[in-house]
Amino acid sequence: MIKSELYGGSSSVEYFLEYFTPATEVDFCGHATVALFHTLASTGMLKIDGGQFEGIANTRAGRFKVVVTKGDESFKVKLTHDQKPQFKKLEERSREIAEALKIGLESLSARFPLRLAKTANWHLVVGLKSKDVLDGINYDAQKLSQLLSEFGAITAHVFCEQADDSGKYFVRNFGPSVGIPEDPATGSAAGAFGAYLFCEGLLRKDQNHLMLVQGEAMKRPSSIELEIIREGDKLMAVEVVGTAVQSFTLVSAS
């Protein structure tokens, strides 16, 4: 991370960020960005005026507006994905994808078309019919890695919708090709997923708030809020909102 006080004449604080998995460097990592700014805020390294900080995360995937808001017990971090989303159709690869996930072809939901989606990184988006199938996935690491590498995607974002149409989704995210067997929270995929739902016409006109529940299978549950920013029928941005929990502190031996 490199911090810059000025960018192109702006007075905004800008942070230049790089992200590394156990296997490689990736263009963007949403949950790491949330964790970083939460840590900076909780350790007093951000100047929070009136309970809020605004800055920029400059990454290989582009520049993302960051807003940190102080709550009663913690800090909320909002990342704005406002780049034009990109998609690629994958219906003809459905059998291969099902085989890589080790699920039956009939478990794929016809309501959610198979897509590659991108607002920061490319992600494979796979909708399932039931949470039971989602919870039971024990994928073929070699086959899924090969598919993700071929598609240029860093993870498979596999999900099902809560039946009450409340805007709640249960998610598992797999990235074996970049050294991550499963991720408990995936902000870059969340941004792409929000754009996918909007652009595929899968949201109601008044449905602008979504909740993703992830990490349950790992016993590391997380909740990611999505805000869909629209002007009429045009998607303007997807805002990914989350907080963080400190897991440990590194102490110098010297």
Mean pLDDT: 93
> Major beta sheet, specifics?
14 strands, mixed
Helix content: 10-25%
Shape: globular
Which class do the helix and strand fractions yield?
alpha+beta
N→C terminal distance: 24 Å
Q: Uncertain spans, ≥5 residues at pLDDT below 50? A: 6-10
Radius of gyration: 18 Å
What percent of residues are in strands? 35-45%
Could you characterize the architecture of this molecule?
The protein is an alpha+beta fold. The chain is built from 5 helices and 16 strands. The strands form 2 sheets. Strands 1, 2, 5, 6, 7, 8, 9, 10, 11, 12, 13, 14, 15 and 16 form a 14-stranded mixed β-sheet that branches. The longest helix has 13 residues, at 30-42. It is globular, with a radius of gyration of 18 Å. The model is unreliable at 6-10 (pLDDT under 50).
Give structural attributes.
254 residues; alpha+beta; 14-stranded mixed β-sheet; two-stranded antiparallel sheet; 5 helices; 16 strands; 37% strand
Q: What is the compact description of this entry?
A:
This protein has 254 residues and is of the alpha+beta class. The chain contains 5 helices and 16 strands. Strands 1, 2, 5, 6, 7, 8, 9, 10, 11, 12, 13, 14, 15 and 16 form a 14-stranded mixed sheet that branches.
